[in-house]
Design brief:
2 domains, 42% helix, OB fold (Dihydrolipoamide Acetyltransferase, E2P), five-stranded mixed β-barrel, 139 residues, 3 helices, 5 strands, alpha+beta, rod-shaped
Length: 139
């Protein structure tokens, strides 16, 4: 394949990454295509070798991308991801009575985690979750 097709495709993928604002996957694939284009421009004429090089670089980019995004800590997902978060009581939350709290831009059903009355508008911290109900304490 002509070298300029590889480089043009790589530039297109990199530009697309900027437009969609993703997680750099397209950028890495674009860089792999540009590298293959440079190799093709330097005399690598076999399409099979070009495709193999692109595949190897794309797989390598996958591992590099994962390595860059890894923080070394296991990410908490699901309901446990809210435990410890700080938010705002959207309504008054009294012991034994349901209320609502706002976390991460969403309103959640909330209950007092202890025998504390929590005023609307005050800062709260999630101590645990049960279903979609947050158990909160004053911050």
């Amino acid at each position: 394949m002509a070298w300029w097709i590889w480089i043009g495709g790589g530039a297109l993928l990199a530009a697309l990454e900027l437009v969609v604002g993703g997680e750099l996957w397209l950028l890495f694939l674009g860089l792999a295509a540009v590298v293959v284009g440079l190799a093709a421009g330097s005399g690598l004429t076999s399409l099979a070798v070009q495709l193999a090089l692109f595949a190897a670089l794309a797989v390598s980019a996958f591992f590099v991308r994962r390595r860059l995004s890894s923080t070394g800590e296991a990410e908490t997902v699901g309901s446990d991801s809210l435990v410890g978060e700080i938010g705002t009581a959207a309504t008054e939350i009294r012991p034994g009575k349901p209320g609502h709290a706002e976390f991460r831009g969403s309103r959640w059903p909330a209950r007092a985690a202890a025998e504390h009355r929590i005023e609307a508008g005050s800062r709260v911290r999630v101590t645990r979750m049960q279903g979609i109900t947050l158990f909160v304490e004053p911050r």
